[in-house]
Amino acid sequence: MRDEQRFDHIVVGAGSAGCAVAGRLSEDPACSVLLLEAGGHDTRPEIHRVDLDSLFTLWTAPWSAELDWGYSTEPEPQLDGRRIPVARGKVLGGCSAVNALMWVRGNRRDYDRWSDLGCKGWSYDEVLPHFRNAEAYPGGDAALRGRTGPISVRDHARPTPVAEAFVEAARQLGFAVPESGRADYNGQVQEGFGFLYQTTRTATGERCSAATGYLRPAARRPNLTVLTGAQATRVLIRRGRAEGVRYLRDGRTHTAWADGEVVVSAGAFESPKLLMLSGVGPAPQLARHGIPCVRDLPGVGENLQDHLFVPLCHQSRREHPPAELVSEAGLFTRSRHAAEDGSPDLQFAFGTAKFLPADAAPELAAGPGFTLAPVLLTPRSRGAVTLAGTDPLAPARVEARYLSAAPDRDILVEGLELARELAHQPAFDDFRGPELAPGPAASDTDALAAYVAANATTLWHPAGTCRMGTGSDAVVDEQLRVHGIEDLRVADASVMPTVVAGNTHAPSVMIGEKAAALLRHHRTSA
Questions:
Q1: Are residues 128 and 226 in the same domain?
Q2: In a domain, 126, yes or no
Q3: What is the residue range of 223's domain?
């Protein structure tokens, strides 16, 4: 490739959203698209396998660092001063190539709230077509679920008996299947019943990442150029317009020019970092690092939100058949702190893996078990991403400030109490062995709060650092255009004003789908 080339559009980041943007834009043969990915090709066979051994290998093998950006938070005061690793996929497909293969849209109230916050065009009814366009799911209500999209979604076909026991335990505790008889949490109703998770896998049983779904069918399109090992270092902005991207590849600096627009889809950490390195961000912070301020946007890097979970683990009296998902079953519900008109604030993940404290006795890991993990869905705590320096290859500085808002801790404590109630329903009688963590000694709220501080960790769902909306702290408008800069958009989880009540992969794909539709509309109407 020459050191300089021109394209209609440049997309930075081949993750859940970036693959959708580039794949959809390249469907127009008259539109040339460059997709830059800092990681490598998704050639590791473990990426495409769906067995749990392969999944855990992606997260724990010595070579797994090659697929990860290597982010950890600063010491978190409310989590006993621990630095919390936050895995970010650095490979074609991004996090969708290394995640737990779950497909969760979130709650309809999430998107209606975005609209109420000034993000016009982002209500549930308005984003639903983009969710449907993204997925190929053979079940559910055809008015709500997509049939022919790039991301292949399947029901959990062979749940373990203990996962089915979780769903039954939810029913025994008073949670019910919707009147329709279908427990499709991505359909009409998202909460109040136990369910088996839907999974992103192909008809042949492989992982369907965003790269698999969007880029593989586009591989032979001459108008789509995908470069891996290409680290964007700066968006080139002149006279208030994004004109191109500078990037490093094979030890050399390259420049790509955009006749149309630049779309930053590098994720909740790298997107604000790239904007700040390009002179777009809080002016005082840029000045501290000697970066000329192109546009003073105080909200760049602010508003960081994430989902914390904490495990309740039991020994099992029975062996389990091999599980197909690390989190097989789930539940969306509300704590005492939930807003009456808001989304559920607790999600449960359930599976046969033993999630034990780091200091647990080694013998506790032996034998079968199961874990109920309450997840904090609607955190009130807010963190920030700031520059650690001007080296584009260095990670940004992340202060998540987990549990800095006291209700967040209380919700997780209540989640542990509910997990215990679920685990003691009759459905678990044939499985329930001793509680290994937190353990019987954690018998009151203070002890559970201490357990949360010592053991809560992230589901790797950072969001919100390039907030969409209006006001001085907003970074992009409702069309994802960076305020004050022409032809520059951000499209990934960083634009979420509030993190969705569920896993963030499917909403990120939806954001990519909507971004591509906005760009196509702008292109045809210009």
A1: yes
A2: yes
A3: 1-69+84-153+200-305+465-526
Q: Are residues 88 and 169 in the same domain?
A: no
Q: Side chain identity at 147, as an amino acid letter?
A: R
Query: Are residue 355 and residue 424 in the same domain, yes or no?
Result: yes
Are 232 and 123 found together in one domain? yes
Contacts of 137 (CB under 8 A, 6+ apart): 103, 145, 146, 147, 153, 154, 186, 198
In a domain, 394, yes or no: no
Tokens of 493: 């989880």
Residue 385 lies in a domain: no
Tell me whether strands 346-351 and 329-333 are parallel, antiparallel or unpaired. Answer: antiparallel
Annotated catalytic sites, by residue?
461
pLDDT tens series, the chain, 526 aa: 446 799 999 999 999 999 999 999 999 999 999 999 999 999 999 999 999 999 999 999 999 999 999 999 999 999 999 999 999 999 999 999 999 999 999 999 999 999 999 999 999 999 999 999 999 999 999 999 999 999 999 999 899 999 999 999 999 999 987 655 568 999 999 999 999 999 999 999 999 999 999 999 999 999 999 999 999 999 999 999 999 999 999 999 999 999 999 999 999 999 999 999 999 999 999 999 999 999 999 999 999 999 999 999 999 999 999 999 999 999 999 999 998 889 999 999 999 999 999 999 999 999 999 999 999 999 999 999 999 999 999 999 999 999 999 999 999 999 999 999 999 999 999 999 999 999 999 999 999 999 999 999 999 999 999 999 999 999 999 999 999 999 999 999 999 999 999 999 999 999 999 999 999 988 777 6
User: Nearest 5°: CA angle at 204, between 199 and 206?
Assistant: 50
Examine the domain organization and report whether 435 and 470 are in the same domain: no
Distance CA 256, CA 6 (A): 6
DSSP state of 472: T
Kindly report the CATH number assigned to the domain that includes residue 183. Answer: 3.30.410.40
Do both 54 and 147 map to the same domain?
yes
In this structure, are 210 and 94 located in the same domain?
yes
| Distance of alpha carbon 98 from alpha carbon 19, whole angstroms | 15
pTM above 0.90, yes or no: yes
Q: Contact, 486 vs 240, CB < 8 A?
A: yes
